[in-house]
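Bench notes, afternoon.
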Amino acid sequence: MQDLCSVSNFTTRTATLAYEIERSSHLFSVHFPALPATAVTLASICSVVDQTGTEVPACPAKHKASFSEKHVNDLFCQWDLVTYNSMLSGFVDVDGYERNALELFVEMHSKSNDIGIDDFTVTSMVKLFAKLSNLCYGRQLHSYMVKTGNDRSGFVVSSLIDMYSKCGCYKEACGIFRGCEKEGGIDLVSKNAMVAACCREGEMEMALGLFWRENELNDSVSWNTLISGYVQNGYPLEALKLFVCMGENGVKWNEHTFGSVLSACADLRNSKIGKEMHAWILKNGLSSSAFVESGIVDVYCKVGNMKYAESFHLTSGTGSSFSITSMIVGYSSQGNMVEACRLFDSLEEKNSIVWAALFGGYVKLNQCEAIFELLCLYIAKEAAIPDPLILVSALSVCAFQAALGLGKQIHGYVYRMGIEMDIKMTTAMIDMYSKCGSIPYAEKMFLKVIERDLVLYNVMIASYAHHGYEIKAINLFQEMLERGVGPDAITFVALLSACRHHGLVDLGERTFYSMTEDYHILPETDHYACMIDLYGRASQLEKMVLFMQRIPIEYQDAAVVGAFFNACRLNKNTELAREAEEKLLKIEGDSGARYVQLANTYAAEGNWAEMGRIRKEMRGKEAKKFAGCSWVYLDNGVHTFISGDRTHSKAVCIYSMLDFLTSELYEIAGAFC
């Protein structure tokens, strides 16, 4: 069977099943009374597109020719039920041969009077529909099985439970299991399938209760299923406890057990437990398994111990794709994109995990150009549309670096490819246009959205507030309330920002107090800082001081006290500014910027002795002020500038233009230099 399967070199997708169903529809209508809409249903769901331009095998006879050559053609007519079932099982298990499996099943049924169809046949087909998550076909096949009496054995029942569970019909899976209990009790296969269904649904209490019921039936599959379920549902500690209990009950651990347990250790980010588990694996001689090796590497990567991960990966000797994938994820999470890309290039086949890892790594580093290049590479290599989350991440980086050009290109790609603009992607687009300063684009996209959620409103209100459209921000807030969308803490930060930019003290006060009185939202640091800044810009120092005194101590952090200090300096109240800056030094003693601010305050007063003392104290504590920078996206690159910096490749041209502009300004002002 393996040789027969390996001869065919064509590739198929699930969608091409419709082609063969349409060609074989007469067989289904004649032989499957319980499947009246089979051909029509799949044809309406799937579309047939031959992407490669190659001839797609169309019928069982052609398969015989392509698979078997001369000697298999001679033997094909002699195939019995066992041979057909073996071929069918092989097609179901191998990715890309789903259509072949369906063809073969159609042919088997057309010859059912001669060869018959047994439980093994229908079990394979149920497994196929579970694999494809095709609930419609699964239900129709189940109906046929009930009619023909092929729904009784434990393996058939377990396959039906698995199919309904994977298709999202948990209640129907439970109904089949309960029917099995009433008819003849529980067998191990059905029980394990139901435990897996409970885990898949997140019903861990029910899974545990079922597991301990008739626990004498439990085997290693039962234990591994439950342990894996706890890990997948976010209960790593419970998984580890069950692992210990498994050993105490005399059930032998295997590579699947350790694979799940290693995932639990990785989720806990516990280096000690991970090392202990590594030692346990070595003791049991399971470290050679590619599955386990990948788990060990993943543990060390997630606890941040890349040296251990590298050492184990290099000495394990297997170099499996699973292990390399874990290393790529680890390097990307640590920001080591050079090593991540090196391993990425070494993989012949790149799955969605490694692509997502690289995108995630570049997003963390805010490397806009690298993300865009990787996006183009993905589209070219995979000939597939990227995951929407990848596009959303790319848009967030474009927003961070104000790369409007790249953001527009991504928007254009989404439009050309007909990618569905869900609320997350739309919000990311609006945020990108807003942070790139293109409010008309952001506003246009916002107005097209009919079903607006809180996050979308928050982004648009903040956009208006930050770009000087305070009245629009306030009006949009009123519209949000009229539509029945309740605000949150982020909404009020945006509103208070709008009020402070426009000097709306009364409205700002009403907004701040309504937050707690009307919406029961407790103020946070950002809200207090906005109010301090609002009073400072309006030169209402008395209100500002009283408000500062009412702020709880735990919220008087660097942001709030810093806003108070800036307001005092703005209003030339050096005494309050000194007090605020001294308080800031206690909060952020290692911040050179705070020392410089206080030194400048004393210098403005002409108090050179105090300024010298602060400078000396700053040097004694080795506090450094990191230079701020500005950047601009130009010619497919981000250009960064620091005050007084002359390291840029075009520094001569830049400073020459600056001198020219300075001269022009002096001329306009009437002072020639």
